[in-house]
Amino acid sequence: MAALKPPTSGSKHPLAVYTICDVRQHNLASSLWLTAHGRVYDVTPFLPLHPGGTRSLLRHAGGDADTDFDFHSDSAQRQWAQYDIGQLGPCEARPKVGRSGCVIM
Questions:
Q1: How far is residue 48 CA from its own chain's centroid?
Q2: Can you give the pTM of this predicted structure?
Q3: How many domains does the chain have?
Q4: Residue 69 forms part of a structural domain
Q5: Per-residue pLDDT tens for 18-64?
């Protein structure tokens, strides 16, 4: 993964940190998040406006869009800033807990 970029000026939540597990939960047209170069974007409101159609965004829903981000012009990349909701952080390994409350390793 590329180094984390600093929050963009358009970021609504510059200090928010999301894991890929958080992002993966937003994989529908009704709630569509993408990651690109360590940033997390909620592009739900942009879905019907995307010049390339909804399909190009939906195929990366809840996942990585580095290649697609890099494909866009500098001007288009700057437009992503308004959908920036935070940064992508590491997933913490969480032990599974059984019904009894015991940790399962």
A1: 18
A2: 0.74
A3: 1
A4: yes
A5: 999 999 999 999 999 999 999 999 999 999 999 888 998 999 999 99
